[in-house]
Amino acid sequence: MIKNILSHLPGDFPRQVHWFEEVTSTNDIAKQMAKAGAPHGTAVLAGRQTGGRGRMGRRFSSPAGMGVYLSVILRPGRPAPELMHLTCAVGTLMCDAVETVSACRPKLKWINDLILQNKKLGGILTELSIDAASGLVDYAVVGIGINCNQKKADFPAELQETAISLKMHTGKPVDMAQLAAAMIYRLCQGAIPENRISLMSAYRKDCITLGKEITVLQEAASYPATALDINDDGALLVRLCDGSTKLLQSGEVSIRGQAGYI
Ligand code: BTN
Q: What is the Å distance from ligand 1's center to 102 Cα?
């Protein structure tokens, strides 16, 4: 697998790509490597994750040989408030990567889900470590999982109505090495742009949440809202039932469509 991934990356690309048959979570391995000094662009991939994680402590199903499970270490050297949009930027770049390999472009559900046919194709988990002395981000680990070759029955029963793989959508098996290389390349080249404006306007175009009636889930509470806009920090502006507006930060809430997952 690793040789196949490298063969799809340009010859002059810095090749810090690590492959494991099985890990708990590629984000955990990448964080250990980042703490030990691994450079910007180091990529960690696994054939299978026994403890794949998503936002809000959710599980990410990661069966052997069926998906790309990738984490990349970024060293942006900027304060955390300048990186609020990072998950959105990664989402747009991952849509680009999928599109080049499979000729279909996923949509994005705010903030971190990749969507096809209104079902979850994959997700992004961003974890930051901040240097206490300088206040700068020491490293960011961005983890992405994309369902590639599953059939419906390969998903856990509770996900079978809400999850999809690229193969279920296109009818063709996915070259996972080619997809992994496209994901690594885009992340290393584009995730920390000087100017976030164009990436964020691309994110808004891909995002299916805008204009939708949603349910906001916050701690034990939930309430209905209409999704109005996403600002350049990736926060979601919503209108509440009483007509007032509110800015939702992704670290605090998750959302559902009022008729189901989307
Ligand atoms: C989500 O669904 O909220 C995000 C899912 C992110 C899954 C990826 S798979 C590679 C990396 N390792 C993990 O444990 N999580 C991310």
A: 21
Using DSSP bridges, classify how beta strands 43-49 and 17-23 pair: parallel, antiparallel or unpaired. Answer: parallel
Going from the Cα of 72 to the center of ligand 1, the distance in angstroms, rounded, reads 12
Under 8 Å between Cβ of 235 and 262: no
Does residue 41 have its Cβ closer than 6 Å to ligand 1?
A: no
The total number of residues shown for the chain amounts to 262
3-state secondary structure of 195: coil
Q: pLDDT tens digits for 68-100? A: 999 999 999 999 999 999 999 999 999 999 999
- Ranges in the chain, pLDDT < 50: none
Q: How many Å lie between the centroid of ligand 1 and the Cα of residue 3? A: 23
Complete domains list, the chain, with CATH: 2-206 (3.30.930.10), 213-257 (2.30.30.100)
Q: What is the pLDDT of residue 128?
A: 96
* Paired tokens of 227: 């999704």
**Ligand 1 atom nearest to CA at 67:** 9
Contact (CB, 8 A) for 152 and 160: yes
Whole-number Å distance between alpha carbons of 189 and 200: 16
